[in-house]
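Support case: S-adenosylmethionine complex. Customer-provided input:
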Amino acid sequence: MLLQNEVVFVYSFILLVGSKGLETRAFSAVNVEIQNYKLMAPNPKFAKAYKAMRALGYPQHIVKPVLKSLLDVYNQNWQHIEDQNYTVLVDAILESEECKEREQQKFHLVDEPEEDEPPLKKSRLRSQAVQALSSPGDSSPSFKGTMDKPVHHVEYVIPESNGKEKMIESVHVHLFDNETEAKVLSPVPHYRREVKTTTPNSSSGSKPKKKIHVSAHDKTNESDLLSPGTQLNENCDTYTSCSIVPRMVDETGKKELLPDDLSELEVPLSVVLPGDSSNAKVHISTSLEVIDLDMEDTNNVELLTQGDSSNAKEPFSTSLELIDLDMEDPSAFSLCYEDESSSGKDSLPQGNRLEYECSVATKEENKSSTSSQIDIASSSSGEVKLSIIYESSLPSNFCIPSLDALFRRMEEKLHKSYRINQSGFSVMNLMKDICEGFLAVGTNTTLDDGVSSADAHANPVAPRILDTQDVLNRNVSHQVGFCVAPNISLGSVEFQSLNEAPPKIPKFQSLNCFNLSRCKIDLTMQGSFSERNKNSLALGDQKSSTSTSMVIVQTQHFSNDMLSSAYYIDDITRGEENLEISLINEINNEHQPIFKYIPRNITYQSAYVKFLLARISDENCCSNCFGDCLSSKIPCACAGETGGEFAYMPGGIVKEKFLEDCMLMNRSPQQKNLFYCQECPLERSKDKNLSGKCKGHLVRKFIKECWYKCGCIKDCGNRVVQRGITCKLQVFMTPEGKGWGLRTLEDLPKGAFICEYVGEIVTNMELFDRNSQHTGKKHTYPVLLDADWCTEGVLKDEEALCLDATFYGNVARFVNHRCDDANLVEIPVEVETPDHHYYHLAFFTTRKVDAFEELTWDYGIDFSDHTHPVKAFKCGCGSQFCRDKKSLKSVRSRG
Ligand SMILES: C[S@@+](CC[C@H](N)C(=O)[O-])C[C@H]1O[C@@H](n2cnc3c(N)ncnc32)[C@H](O)[C@@H]1O
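Agent response - structure generated as follows:
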């Protein structure tokens, strides 16, 4: 099992006070915002291309040069490069990698990958080898090393009058080591840096700016200029601290540069403020901090330095730039400080640059021996964030609790253990008090200037946790309270305030799976504060808006090894579906199977599928309807197919009775309602001349949905399948050896629509030919559209259809089989044509399904039928009703 038996809880609480001055002081008295620096906005096409290539295992530094050459070749025309999902780029990378590999093989330095490795893996191996080779003595801090003693290689070079450079020192500096040892090793001051993030002000509406602060701590002076606490947000919680080693380079960006006489400069090195430079030294130990270092998006990055305000007369006007930010390796990057304006003895030589080489440690590496930690941070947007990180063993049966259960438990505990029995006491209020207290202490004020602490709670946010089911149905009108969002993205459950927001599908957190290394609970509180007294921390008057949001993120705990081996793709649909469907493999090296994602069925060649309005009679549509058919008292003609009653309830849930009937018809063999063709197209496809005896086909119940010829609205409740996937799904590698599988990332009620089985519409004959041509090749399990073969006598070949998702398909191609008690059932759905040769095959849940459960359906395989066009696999469904006797035997003999 990949889960490590450990969990870290982060409780964080943000109080937005909406008062800039207050917040600045709350952060740290010595902090001075020195400047905002925005990086040039990179071309988003690059980012997109890097992302696509990263999904294939190619890091940016490999892609970048290839992409640049391609752009040169194509005259900066992206279209050729973007075409067919960057095929040209992939080819070019492969070629370039092969070239490099050939070069390296000359020196016998690379282990040859196995010949039968898949190309992607092969090239990944290659690229790893290339990386390893290209930086044998790399001085950049290693991500893998422990944080106790990361070793940095620092060189000091002096430029000489002849233009050459002279190396004056080459040392290894042990960072984070004890001071004495570091001093012995190098006279160079060393710095500890904390990477911090704050949650951007979400109330502003505009895209929040990403900020980068760097906190430096001069250990030699023992002066701690760090702001109180560290708070990490989900974008960046891998990075908690890093080290920087200063070095100077000349304007060409070449090697380090130090003036001959080191003593002329302050040690640590100094930088100079503009204007009156005589008295304007600020040590490099100036506090810098990194906020919201979003490696995915260097757009809108702001660098802020925070200096000793006693020395700083005014903010730096010199530029700071983030250089060498290697997206693939956030463990090492550089910050460059360029002094443009200064002159004078103590300044950097004109035009020179001071570079900070930074390394970032992961939380993992930097774990202290203590089991919990409290961090407090505030931001320029007026938030106070309180984080309590608690590390403990994770029981194997741990699953994410609901927020109200957590609150109940906490309140019980506080009542029992601390005898807090005050009415009105709640965990929420406690958290709020802590944040207010933090601000109060930080601003040297008390709560007593006209506003009592009781007043502070006069307008409390009263959480009302809605039933998950309510939200699932998405039909409840939300007034006030929390919404327990059913949409879980990569392990997160989001609780959102719906105080003011209209009920809508809440925004998912876009967490990168690889950052999900801890269990985190964020309590975010926002409030407008009374302007009566800037120092007052009470919640504002009645008019002020308050909103509360909570986020629970359950994350799997990956070790570094696992992180590097996990394979993850954001969206296998490439934007074809309403929402992204990710794919993750934490089990083996298998990459995403090659197929083309299509959201709707498509005819391969001979299948007769014609949608003709003329074929839709009045009984087959509801042209006189308007509005939502489900809300009409008398069911319309479209309910005729289902006995004059709609199969759906509002919210797209299939009615219990209808669902149970469908399940029963599919399930137990005794109750199976089979019909037999006069001349079975399936048997005929096996042998065109000798038509074998029909083995029977299931009689199924159809759902008929309203469609274009109907008069109802697009949002009519009798249009479900045609609207596509609406629940959060993920393709994952199953640990039981069934290959890829599909799971839900959110709790689902019984009868919910999941997806339809989409593939190429092929005739039985075409399918048979395909299978015989591609023997031994891995095929997805095709489905027969045979639900109505009984009604029309002898079917022509082009009318006897199946869906094959092997080459073109949707997410349903990943749904594995489970004998009898699967949690999905397939129901034929008529949308475009009353002609049942062709219909949609839609999957609905047979019961309530929990988040992260694998979704399965019963393929209806007869494991003893060896003549079936698709060879049955050895079933590993694990069901107690498993019909595969061979598989059962092997399980028993193993047992
Ligand atoms: C429709 S695909 C499902 C996705 C597939 N697991 C994959 O990796 O692409 C059907 C194939 O999955 C595998 N499979 C599905 N259910 C299985 C089960 N219960 N036991 C073993 N293999 C299964 C079989 O190889 C089958 O041919």
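The two ends are 20 Å apart (CA to CA).

Case will auto-close in a few days if no follow-up is received.
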